[in-house]
Design goal:
This protein has 187 residues and is mainly alpha-helical. The chain contains eight helices and three strands, in the order αβααββααααα. It has two domains: 3-84, Arc Repressor Mutant, subunit A; 95-186, no CATH class. A hairpin with a 7-residue loop joins β2 and β3 (66-71). The radius of gyration is 21 Å and the shape is elongated.
């Protein structure tokens, strides 16, 4: 998937400046796509040049003017075409898994530390995703939200992010337990 499609999908939430889009990525898209603000700004320029976005300047008092972007009809058509194409399976590339593959010949304490960092990161992300879910649900249960919401895509991707982090937590805890038991047995 290209960054362009992630940007177009994020703009389905409505008009946004580059800064607002970066924040939107942090809270609603980061569970499945990451990008630096610089990458986003470059992509916004390309998308506008390609006619998939429309930009306009918003004058502000006491702050520099900002550009805000909205999807064009061509942008929506591009998203439609993108969703119609078969999705390619993703390939996992994870440095931590390579380290685990070599843990018996490597620095086990460093690998444990890397696992602990992953575990804490996943716990923090899951906490963030739970807060985002609570905000989306706004007091409703999931069934009510899914039947009443104008757009369910953000909730469905949030569910994937939550499941991913829950599995990272379960897996990290399991692997740390195995490494700890092996280390204790060798003492």
């Amino acid at each position: 998937m290209a960054l362009r499609h992630a940007v177009l999908a994020a703009l389905l939430e409505g008009e946004a400046s580059g800064y607002q889009l970066a924040k939107r990525f942090d809270v609603s898209v980061a569970n499945f796509w990451s990008a630096t603000p610089q990458q986003l700004y470059r992509e916004l320029e390309r998308l506008e040049r390609d006619g998939l976005l429309s930009g306009r300047v918003v004058e502000q008092r006491r702050r520099p003017n900002k550009r805000v972007f909205t999807l064009t009809a061509d942008g929506r058509e591009e998203l439609h075409a993108f969703t119609a194409r078969p999705a390619r399976p993703t390939a996992m590339r994870d440095d931590l898994l390579v380290k685990l593959q070599a843990v018996d010949a490597g620095d086990q304490d460093a690998v444990r530390k890397a696992l602990t960092v992953r575990l804490e990161r996943s716990r923090g992300r899951l906490d963030l995703y739970d807060r985002l879910r609570d905000g989306l649900l706004d007091g409703r249960d999931e069934a009510a939200y899914l039947s009443e919401a104008d757009r369910v895509g953000p909730y469905l991707t949030l569910m994937a992010g939550r499941a991913y982090e829950q599995e990272n937590i379960r897996w990290s805890e399991t692997v740390l337990g195995i490494l700890d038991r092996r280390a204790a047995a060798r003492r």
